Amino acid sequence: MTTVLLAFAPGVLLKGALAGLLWTVAAALDAPPESFVLAWFGVVLAAIDLRHHRLPDALTLPLAASLLLLQFHHLGEALLAAAVFGGAHLVVRRVRPAVMGGGDVKLAFGLGAALPLPALLPAAILSSAVTLAVAALRRRRAVPHGPGLLAATWALTTL
Question: Domain spans of the chain?
Fold first, then answer.
């Protein structure tokens, strides 16, 4: 049992340290609450997606609901941004299903709620750049897009 816990601990510690770092940066920059929600969910979802190539609904749906609730004062714009950002990813999924998974589309709908309309194009470009960087670092053609989406959204809401 102890061996299992010790083998598991470095990954947990790394994820905790990364989430703590993102929280610290968000706090130092007096970022909006969305940044803190994205930091926690982002680290967990990115780790799952990188390891298993899956984005579980048990995490993506509460993230989307949280981000929408935090935008209650701009709910109409948040819903429109979610529809545009998620819709663009849905089009890519329909045209080239091998390029993007359904979890990425659901995640994009939720993340769009945290972004103002003018930030949607920069978010798409930055998320693609992060995904390409992950592919280069891993020396693989097929890498998950979720970490790129999460990193870009956190950066654009925080910085």
Answer: 2-158
